[in-house]
Structures are given as structure tokens and as C-alpha cells.
Design brief:
425 residues, 15 helices, mainly alpha
């Protein structure tokens, strides 16, 4: 164990991981605080409307992205020079522009029928989610993805802090004036990521430039080939994490949707910590080709797994206090739901270090297959369990999906490592 800690302390990758996880966790905590202020002000019923919009933004931004940002972690990290990096940047932005125009147009036309399908009385909120929230989240993610692919992790953290601070300032003003109109509140919150985008050129080195008018056929082919797999996985994963809110809204009441939306923001902090961890590990592990590098990495991943397990035990015990001191006592009826969601969140975090291996092992079908499996479990589980068990049924479906992906990731990675490095393991 002492050797493991010494090895971890000397690791640049671990230091970068700590920077991203701690920095983004602090920024995410600021964003979460803004949601807490809003949820306390408007109560579960109105926050149910907000939660539907929030879930739609997460889903729309993933559809707009389609796994394209994830390709930067592989191709930019291995690019030969700045010219090649700029080709990847330009190609990814061009592809996203095409996708976002199509998806936003669908949202504008389908806002009213989609609201009826969800048994939802706020079509204008759905429209804002497509036009404002989806676009701002998509290109904010592009900005942070580019910075991370360049290993400018400190700037990625700063960018996240800026948008989080805008959200908190907005929430503080809303609470100060006791303003409870959910549509303008949601619009201001959804638009917050646009602020750092206005200053995006300050965060890049001078060598970075974009030209979205050129197609860059070679870079585009590479991106699309990988995005077919990562996009399927990322979209399916996001649907798995957000579609439960839409199912609850459809089968239950807006009040219960608000309860789920409120308590789900607590494990969201830990889920976003896993995203920060992945943003560091994925581009670094993509470079590992030697078995000794992979062995050293697996030792660190094992240590991380122990820490994650301890973190879950602490949060499980503190769950009632987490509700009381965050969203408030109005959300305590969802305590059991929160504990199950926490287990699902920590299972997702535990999966990340082993998912990173597939960037080194060059097996992109892992992302599409696991994403589809997870989505099928969550959708099927919600459809079967929510009408019978309510909120807890939705949380159980998510936990089953996360545990299944964890087990599949471990077994799949072990099988490939044995096949590829059998003589040296």
C-alpha cells in the first residue's frame, strides 16, 4: 500500500486529475448552490418544471455533440503539430454547427407536441431548452474539451468557474427579489455558459485557429469514425441519467418530478466529479502503449477504487443532512431515492478509471455497446418500475444500469488485456 501511495504522489497525471476534479468540483458546487437557492425559493412543484427543462438541456447538448468532443481527447493528444490540431478543432466545430442547426429546428417546430407528450404545461420552457440551453451547453462543452485536449486544464477549470459564478449571481439576485416566475429563471440559468464563450480566445495559445468553412476531409473522417461509437455511448449515457425525470413527469406528478429533480442534484456533484476525472484520464491513458505503463496505471486505479468506496459510505450516512442543508426539508420524502442515486453515482465514478483503458486499447465499440446497454436498462427499468414503485423505482433502474456497466467494463478490459499482453501479464 505504501508503494502505491508513493507511486501516486510522483504521478503528473494524478496531479492533473486532482486539479480537474477539485477545481471542477468547486465550480460545480457553485452551480449546485445556485440550483439549491432556486429549489428552496420555488418549492418542489415549480422546481419540477425547472427539472424537466434541465433534463432536456442535458439531452439536447449530447445530441448536438454526438460524441464529437470526446474525439478531441484522442486525436488532438496525438497530433503531430498545431496545424493538425487546428484541423481537428475546425472539423469538430463544423460538424457541431450542422447538428445543432438541425436539432434546434426540430425543437422549435416540436415544442408544443413534445410538451403534450410529457404531460407538461410549459411549452415555452421546452423551447428555451432547445434554443438557449442546448446551444449554450453544446459550445461551452466544445470550449472546455478543446482546452483539455491541449492539456490546458487550469484554463478549463477557470472557464467552468466563470459560468458557475454567473449562475450563482443570477440565483442570488432572484432570491433577493423573491422572484418566482420559472420561465425567466430557467432562461437566465440556461444562458449562463454563453458568458465564458464570449471571452474564449483569451484561453487558447496563439497557435490555435479555426476555419469552419473548410471541410478537412481526413480529420472529418477520423472524427466521424470514432464518434459513431463514442456518440452512441455518450448519448445513451446521458439519456440514462436524465430520462428518469421525463418518465416521472409522464407517469407521476410535477411535485414528484420536483422531488426527484431536487435530490438528484446532490449526486450530480459526484457524477460531474467523474466527468472531470475522465477528462484528465482519457487523453493521458490514450498514450499508453507499453504493458508496464498499463500495470502502473492499474495499480493507481485500484487505489482510487478504494477511496471511491469509502466516499460512498460517508455520503450514504450523511444523506439526510445533505438534503436538509442543500435543497431543504421539503425534499426529505425523497431520502430513500437519494441514497439509491448516490450508490449509482459512485458506481459511475468507479467505472471511469477502467473506461479510460479503452482509449489505449483502441476498442471504440465499447462505448457504443455499453451506452446502448445502459440506456436499455434505464428506459426499460423506468417504464416497468416507475408506475409501480414511483420515485424509488426510477432510482433502482439507474443503479442497476450503473452496476451492470461497471461489471461489464471490468470484465471487458481484463479480457482485452489478456488477449493483447498475455505473455507479459
Amino acid at each position: 500500500m505504501k508503494k502505491l501511495f508513493q507511486l501516486a504522489a510522483q504521478s503528473q497525471g494524478l496531479r492533473q486529475s486532482v486539479l480537474m476534479v477539485v477545481g471542477n468540483l468547486m465550480a460545480t458546487s457553485i452551480s449546485a448552490l445556485s440550483l439549491i437557492l432556486i429549489s428552496r425559493l420555488v418549492g418542489p412543484s415549480l422546481f419540477g418544471e425547472f427539472s424537466v427543462g434541465f433534463a432536456l438541456i442535458m439531452i439536447i447538448s449530447r445530441l448536438n455533440d454526438a460524441g464529437i468532443t470526446a474525439t478531441l481527447m484522442k486525436f488532438v493528444a496525438n497530433a503531430d503539430d498545431s496545424t493538425q490540431r487546428n484541423e481537428y478543432f475546425s472539423a469538430t466545430i463544423r460538424l457541431k454547427l450542422i447538428l445543432s442547426i438541425v436539432i434546434t429546428s426540430i425543437g422549435v417546430v416540436g415544442a408544443i407536441p413534445f410538451s403534450r407528450l410529457l404531460n407538461f404545461d410549459s411549452p415555452w420552457l421546452v423551447l428555451v431548452a432547445f434554443v438557449v440551453g442546448g446551444l449554450s451547453a453544446t459550445y461551452f462543452e466544445q470550449l472546455t474539451g478543446m482546452l483539455q485536449s491541449l492539456h490546458r486544464f487550469q484554463y478549463a477549470v477557470v472557464v467552468n468557474f466563470i459560468q458557475a459564478s454567473v449562475k450563482l449571481l443570477t440565483a442570488a439576485v432572484i432570491v433577493f427579489f423573491q422572484f418566482r416566475q420559472i420561465l425567466p429563471i430557467f432562461t437566465l440559468y440556461a444562458a449562463a455558459p454563453l458568458v465564458p464563450l464570449l471571452f474564449s480566445t483569451f484561453f487558447f495559445p496563439k497557435s490555435v485557429s479555426f476555419n469552419v468553412m473548410k471541410k478537412y476531409a481526413r480529420a472529418r473522417r477520423q472524427i466521424i469514425t470514432m464518434a459513431k461509437h463514442t456518440g452512441t455511448g455518450y448519448i445513451a449515457s446521458t439519456l440514462s441519467g436524465q430520462i428518469n425525470v421525463l418518465f416521472v413527469q409522464s407517469f407521476l406528478t410535477t411535485y414528484e418530478t420536483g422531488l426527484l429533480g431536487g435530490v438528484s442534484k446532490i449526486p450530480l456533484l459526484f457524477s460531474l466529479a467523474s466527468m472531470s476525472l475522465s477528462n484528465v484520464l482519457f487523453p493521458r491513458v490514450a498514450r499508453y502503449t507499453l504493458i508496464q505503463d498499463l500495470k502502473n496505471y492499474l495499480q493507481k486505479a485500484s487505489l482510487l477504487l478504494i477511496l471511491i468506496g469509502g466516499g460512498f459510505l460517508i455520503t450514504y450516512i450523511l444523506a439526510p443532512f445533505l438534503i436538509t442543508f442543500t435543497v431543504g426539508n421539503d425534499y426529505l420524502p425523497a431520502l430513500s431515492t437519494l441514497r439509491i442515486l448516490l450508490a449509482a453515482a459512485f458506481a459511475m465514478i468507479a467505472t471511469v478509471p477502467f473506461t479510460a483503458l479503452f482509449y489505449s486499447l483502441s476498442d471504440p465499440k465499447y462505448f457504443s455497446i455499453t451506452g446502448i446497454i445502459q440506456m436499455l436498462i434505464v428506459v426499460g427499468g423506468n417504464f416497468l418500475l416507475v408506475p409501480v414503485y414511483g420515485l424509488i423505482g426510477s432510482a433502482i433502474a439507474e443503479l442497476i444500469a450503473r452496476l451492470a456497466i461497471f461489471a461489464l467494463t471490468l470484465s471487458w478490459a481484463a479480457w482485452i488485456l489478456r488477449q493483447k499482453y498475455l505473455s507479459t501479464l
